[in-house]
Amino acid sequence: MRVLILGGYGTFGGRLVRLLAAEPRLTLIVAGRSLRQAQAFCAAGAAQAALVPAAFDRDGDAEAQLAALAPDIVVDASGPFQVYGDPYRVVRAALARGVDYLDLADGSDFVAGIAPFDAPAKSCGIFVLAGASSFPLLTAAVVRRLSAGMACVEAVSAGIAPSPHVTLGLNVIRSIASYCGKPFARIRDGKPSVGYGLTESRRFTIAPPGCVPLGNRRFSLVDAPDLKVLPALWPSLREVWIGAGTVPESLHRVLNLCAWAVRLRLLPSLLPFARAMHGMTRRLRWGEHRGGMFVAVRGGALTRSWHMIAEGDDGPFIPSMACAAIIRRCLDGARPAPGARAATRDIELDDYETLFAQCAIRTGTRETLPAALPLYRRLLDNAYEALPPPLQAMHDLRDALSAEGRATVTRGKGWLARLAAAIVGFPAAGENLPVRVDFTRENGRERWTRNFAGRTFHSTQEQGRGRSEWLICERFGPLCVAMAPVLDEDRLRLVARRWSLFGMPLPRRLAPVGNAYEYAADGRFHFHVEIGHPLAGLIVAYRGFLVPRDCARDDAVPRQEGLTAATGGRH
């Protein structure tokens, strides 16, 4: 099968080539305006598929160029679809040549305008699928999964959060610039309304259960095909909101201001500034090299959300995955039905999950849970069931719980470390110390009172809100550390993400550091906590085990040699 990929050496077309490169049954024609760039791209990577560089000018005679290249499928990954002079030139050429067509279009008008080609495509026996990308295909697949069992779907919101370190092509930036501050149709409160690109913002935390979440991000409204496509699939929808969460946030807010300048007609458009915007995105890069996406669905009193995080450079593969899955289906004889339409039903979330498993991509769902449930059960959601039973028993706090065991405590030597330990009340150093922890629920918080050989200190834990959403906020007096509960094989790690003093957020680079985790061994709950600071070094470390008091027996507390074995020696 010969597949022509327009923009095949670009941001998303190039990744589509890489997703299909291991398929020896394919000839991939990597095409764009520059034959030199196509040749360089094909020469740079090893592939089992045959890679053929080609020049293709979509503004030229598209039908003649298709005739010369003779593809079985053409994929338009070039863009920007919002500002094509003749937007359906390649579609008409594909129909004339009887060639199947896919695109990664992100423009709502372009995707909605594909419908008139339905009858000609059916008469030719070919498929013409627009928007075979994250928006709207992945969104629609997720909404189908999340809405299972709901009486109706009333609201859908979704957002994509690219890594600040991913290089976006100029055409991607031109696409964004084309609708900044410009009006487009959407529904709000069940009525037709108008949205303006990047002038409406919301905050959201992408947090698959059991994973380190993305930092809480600002998302701004974008002109995505979902705004028009999803209401046709779910007529009960009263609102659809699609956003992009660009970081750094300072750059995002500058884009918001520029969009408002266009909306207020202080500027005619941001398109003339697209090249400058592209340069800024290549220079202003800081923060974690991670990206993600979310989809939230509300039906009646029930809200469910799907969360996805992609590590490193794996995020930009996601927009190309739908086309890769459809092409592989065609190879296996499972072609999409003939006709022209928005690509919303041609693959399911299961197909995506197969591809996600090949990358550093984690997904999960969350649902509205009662506040009466224990803290860790609410934050871990369905990942809670993966915890070892001793950890579940310790965190299944309904009212009060006491546990006893043994611990070893190590203290830092410096004066700053000693001062910090004294302020909090951390225990003195010692080996094989008796330890007791009393857990109680107070006004929605969990109070942990720790007693090491008669020396007591306590903290409270609660579910974070706002920018600490989906984090555990542990307070030691005026100090608050917001931590992510993370499943790491058979351990539950607590990873610090934010901190504050007297309610004032402080820089993460100055935050307390350490290694805190829980695990099960010999059927018991074990803990390992190290707390330090970049300026003070180690402040305190304590490790040991606990047994719920109603389960404790005289022989449940071993001597020192038993403690060392039970905690794995170095732990």
Structural account:
The protein is built from 17 helices and 27 strands. It has 571 residues and is α+β, with helices and mostly antiparallel strands. The chain has 3 domains: 2-130, NAD(P)-binding Rossmann-like Domain (Rossmann fold), CATH 3.40.50.720; 134-313 and 357-367, Dihydrodipicolinate Reductase, domain 2, CATH 3.30.360; 375-566, Beta Barrel (Lipocalin). The chain has a 10-stranded antiparallel beta barrel. A 7-stranded parallel β-sheet has the order 3-2-1-4-5-6-15, with helices on both faces. The protein has a 7-stranded mixed β-sheet with strand order 10-11-12-7-13-14-16. The longest helix has 15 residues, at 249-263. Residues 552-571 have low confidence and may be disordered.
**Mean pLDDT, as a whole number?**
92
* Intertermini distance: 56 Å
Give the total of domains.
3
Helix/sheet category:
alpha+beta
The CATH class designation of the largest domain is Mainly Beta
Which percent band covers the strand fraction?
25-35%
CATH architectural type of the largest domain: Beta Barrel
Strand order of the largest sheet: 17-18-19-20-21-22-23-25-26-27
Low-pLDDT runs of 5+ residues are 552-571
Tally of DSSP helical segments: 17
